[in-house]
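ok, trying the design again with the full structure, not the truncated one.
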């Protein structure tokens, strides 16, 4: 292959290889994490619109260097010295994608800006413009060059009109300041291998001639054969990235999946893409392809080969995405920013699904699953909150930080939570005026090049506020702690509802009735009240309530559903107006009154009217109610209203 060495131009602001290799900025990720996060995101961004599946295949192994070394002019002798017989390689192939399409031989800037081939092979920091794309494609790709000696081979097959074209080109980015550099004649440490047009200067250090990919299928096939890889055939399009002379993983951990590339890649795919991996719920919700991955031909993420921990992470994601849970072990909360967040303040900014369970449920500590080899960073936290945008890649696992402030499960337990934003929700008008119409656009713009966290833009505080509200919601839902049993809703109902259910509304005014002095100086209570509410969540799924009630004449005890808008609650009447096709999620199954001077006057599924037998005389009694829930997504309240004179 012909070589083009990046020219040394003292007047240009072009980067050198060492600066580019530092541009990813994040050294916290393991090697396999860097490769997986970048390669799958690129594949998803390039998925064809009609593809039901996006397939990403990882291969590792050894290759014969005697065949490959001579292909790289200018550095072949040095390669032979270092790797005379064999070396290891890593390849990533995607299918169901458009491949590295776009022009590569144009002088027009607009053609190159819109060319996926140019952006990945020649461009640094060129943004992906596709809706829901992962971010700055150019910077993240530097991870490929850090896995070996700096060499990367790009092979792709694209469709141009009714025809197909194969393209292959090599690239090198290295630190030119290192003594072990391959390019002895370059002060920048950047080069490409491909072919020149016949009328171009093909000298080794040509600054004017443009290097182009090899498009001859036979020549490409011979290079792929070195690694045991096959060309795309028939109507297939896609991209294969080959990293030859790849380095071994550092064995700095006792975790078994950090010992080999094969196991590390399999674990990383699940760690970062469990929301998207073989997930029909995701595909149906967003009308997007399913992600299917293999490592050396072995599937990853199917029912038989998923780590149970990441199976739970996918379940939490699905619950937060859809807003419904079918498990008593998992709960879900709507997150709302009431002011200057969404265009309509009643629209959710997202949902958080959570569970509290024993760490012993898994073979390894949950923090080890999400942090891998970074044992020195392990903080022993018992809260893990994941979050992801529309593409389905986990941006970060927030461990014991502001996403779960003041939530402290008991020893041996862990809170697992997943926040999913309302991606298509429109933002407050002032934020839209800044160019961010939807929450997805804002979060994407605020991600770093490595997609490792969300940050606010300018003077906005949207990320800060949604993070604070998630933490507040988790704290309220778990009461800051938990009994940690396998039934998260036992905790949720027993603790949270014990705070929600004591009525905030008494009498017609919605306030606690007061005592006043009668004409003869004696106190007489007017209205009705409820005090000392205790709740217990039974094994049959029902809620048992015990409270003390005071009543004069008649009072109506009514079930409501807590809301974050309006007056904070919905009665059966209000519910039917809002959701006329949905059943009210709670009803009264049984009532017992201890004081014989108070009796039931009338009763239906959501309300009971009680009255004092002795008219105009205040009576107090213990009342025991049994409530049946048809959904665990809503929080019931009880409200009492005085019916004196009715």
């Amino acid at each position: 292959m012909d070589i083009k060495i990046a020219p040394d131009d003292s007047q240009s602001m072009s980067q050198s290889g060492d600066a580019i290799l530092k541009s990813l900025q994040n050294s916290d990720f393991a090697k396999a994490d860097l490769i997986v996060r970048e390669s799958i995101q690129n594949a998803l961004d390039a998925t064809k619109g009609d593809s039901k599946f996006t397939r990403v295949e990882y291969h590792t192994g050894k290759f014969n260097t005697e065949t490959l070394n001579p292909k790289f002019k200018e550095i072949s002798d040095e390669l032979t010295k270092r790797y005379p017989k064999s070396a290891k390689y890593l390849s990533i192939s995607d299918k169901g994608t458009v491949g590295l399409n776009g022009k590569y031989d144009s002088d027009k800037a607009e053609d190159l800006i819109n060319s996926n081939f140019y952006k990945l092979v020649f461009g640094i920091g060129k943004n992906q413009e596709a809706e829901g794309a992962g971010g700055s494609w150019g910077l993240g790709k530097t991870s490929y060059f850090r896995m070996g000696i700096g060499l990367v081979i790009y092979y792709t097959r694209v469709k141009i009109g009714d025809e197909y074209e194969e393209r292959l080109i090599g690239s090198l980015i290295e630190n030119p300041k290192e003594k072990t550099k391959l390019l002895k004649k370059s002060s920048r440490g950047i080069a490409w291998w491909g072919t020149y047009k016949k009328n171009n200067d093909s000298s080794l250090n040509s600054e004017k001639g443009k290097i182009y990919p090899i498009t001859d299928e036979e020549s490409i096939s011979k290079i792929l054969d070195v690694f045991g890889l096959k060309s795309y055939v028939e109507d297939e399009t896609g991209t294969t990235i080959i990293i030859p002379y790849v380095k071994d993983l550092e064995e700095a951990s006792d975790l078994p999946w950090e010992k080999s590339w094969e196991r590390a890649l399999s674990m990383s795919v699940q760690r970062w893409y469990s929301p998207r991996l073989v997930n029909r719920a995701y595909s149906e919700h967003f009308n997007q392809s399913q992600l299917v991955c293999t490592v050396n031909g072995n599937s990853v993420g199917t029912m038989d080969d998923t780590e149970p921990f990441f199976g739970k992470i996918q379940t939490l994601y699905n619950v937060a995405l859809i807003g419904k849970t079918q498990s008593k072990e998992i709960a879900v909360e709507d997150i709302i920013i009431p002011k200057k967040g969404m265009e309509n303040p009643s629209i959710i900014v997202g949902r958080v699904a959570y569970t509290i369970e024993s760490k012993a449920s898994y073979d390894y500590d949950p923090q080890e699953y999400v942090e891998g080899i970074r044992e020195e960073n392990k903080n022993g936290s018992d809260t893990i909150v994941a979050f992801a945008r529309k593409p389905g890649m986990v941006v970060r696992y927030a461990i014991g930080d502001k996403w779960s402030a003041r939530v402290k499960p008991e020893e041996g337990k862990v809170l697992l939570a997943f926040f999913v934003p309302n991606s298509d929700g429109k933002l407050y008008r002032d934020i839209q005026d800044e160019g961010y119409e939807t929450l997805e656009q804002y979060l994407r713009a605020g991600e770093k090049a490595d997609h490792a966290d969300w940050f606010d833009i300018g003077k906005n505080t949207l990320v800060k506020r949604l993070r604070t509200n998630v933490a507040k919601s988790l704290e309220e839902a778990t009461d800051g702690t938990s009994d940690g049993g396998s039934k998260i809703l036992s905790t949720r109902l027993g603790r949270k509802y014990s705070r929600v259910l004591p009525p905030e509304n008494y009498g017609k005014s919605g306030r606690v009735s007061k005592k006043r002095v009668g004409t003869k100086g004696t106190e007489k209570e007017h209205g009705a009240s409820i005090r000392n509410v205790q709740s217990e969540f039974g094994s049959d799924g029902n809620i048992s309530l015990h409270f003390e009630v005071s009543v004069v004449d008649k009072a109506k005890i009514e079930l409501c559903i807590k809301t974050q808008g309006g007056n904070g609650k919905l009665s059966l009447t209000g519910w039917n107006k809002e959701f006329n096709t949905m059943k009210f999620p709670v009803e009264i199954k049984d009532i017992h009154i201890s004081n014989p001077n108070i009796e039931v006057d009338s009763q239906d599924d959501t309300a009971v009217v009680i009255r004092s037998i002795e008219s105009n005389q205040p009576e107090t009694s213990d009342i025991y109610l049994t409530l049946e829930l048809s959904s665990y997504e809503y929080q019931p309240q009880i409200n009492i209203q005085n019916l004196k004179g009715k």
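Keeping the full-length input from now on. The first strand starts at residue 2 and ends at 5.
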